[in-house]
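Q: Structure tokens for this one, please.
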Amino acid sequence: MVPVQSQINNPVTGVFGTGQVQIFSSSGSWTVPPGIGRVRARCFGGGGGGFDLSSPSGGCGGGFAMKTIYDLTGVTSVAVTVGTGGTSGTGGTSSFGSYVSATGGSHGASSSVPGTGVGGDINTSGGITVSGTSPGGGVGNLFGNGGGFLGSYAVPGTSGAGVSSSNSMANPGFMGQSGGSAGSSYYRYSNPTSGQEGAFSLDFIGTGGGGSYLGAGINGGGGGYNGTGGIPGGGAGGYARGAPGLVIVEY
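A: Here is the predicted structure, written as tokens:
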């Protein structure tokens, strides 16, 4: 996917370079185009997977980093790694060569370590979740750390964490609204929103809402109990799988 300049509306970071963008949803290699001397990379780490315990534990959100590389002299290509979502374990690290990376979030059963950005001009962390806390944490993003849960206490963030019970609401993200569930039933009465409606923007990737009970997060939001994390980098709730990360290259 290579959006052209006219398709991008980045209110915070603006259009970079020639306005060309390459989005990696799986690992590969970025080839330096002729005449390009600098590049900006955004990395989202993979979300942690939920863990199967007598009291299920969700996964922490992946980290985020953004970095501008000003000198590509002699560089013809850069390896791109996209972190996988965790399955009952830690999510994978996403990286743009050795320039910048974002680690994946752990699961809350034996450790509670959110992913974090490494080497970026901007580095933020995913949302935390701890042992016995079933919802997943949200991914870090341009605007700050992801939302999470510490036991029964919500930790606000710029991406939403999931919901832990069937009669409560998940956390909203910076742009996206949360999902929730009605009464003690297993049915959702609302779905989370992505925050990406309208003009496409790289800046708002990873700012979605957390998932409802048995529901998935969206646009980086954590999954509710037994719900998958939202791409990119949302932590899973309950027994589910964390979302894979993402690497975005602007040049």
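A few notes: The radius of gyration is 17 Å. Residues 168 and 180 are 6 Å apart (CA to CA).
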